[in-house]
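Fold it.
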Amino acid sequence: MTDSIRILIIEDNQNYLNSLKQALTLLEGVEYFDGYGSFEAFRNATTEVPDAPDLILLDINLPGLSGLDALPELKRIMPSTEVIMLTQNDDYPNVLTAIQRGASGYIIKGGSVKDIHQAILDVHHGAAVIDPRLSRIVLTTLACTPRESQENPLSEREAEVLSAMADGLTKKEVADQLKLSYHTIDLYTRNIYEKLKAPNNAAAIATAIRKGLI
């Protein structure tokens, strides 16, 4: 399938990596691209990779360089590739760090294949995904963080678009809700990223909530 979302996995638990690989081969619209047990193994083999995957499932607790520390380099060498963090740890500060460093999603291991599949599809279509078991405490923490006093750089429509994305809507769903074209929503989104100096939806949402913009 030429339109399949190509998934690369960096996960040190070989059994879990194999399970994900097997699941991805059965899911519609996705395709297993490659897998590595550490970031160093991935980095050493990158010269053999013909092109970048669409999305990376990245374990947060890797041997050697952790997933959190590897994330900035991954985003540097593959800026258009989305990254979803995988973890057994529900420590919310790691979620915030991952978002700040460019992750588009954060899900806890042990979730159903259906949930992982949906997270992949949502991120690929422009949504930010945080496991429901983490989202409430993360958003509460951001909302309780002392807010910087400043003029809102977002236009009323941009704030409306970002608020809808904070509710978990994809770009297409926001376009349908606001009765605008997908192209228009994509343009608003790029303006939002530039104004908030954010690499993706998740970071833009976190920044906007912290600053009290939405």
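Residues 65 and 200 are 23 Å apart (CA to CA).
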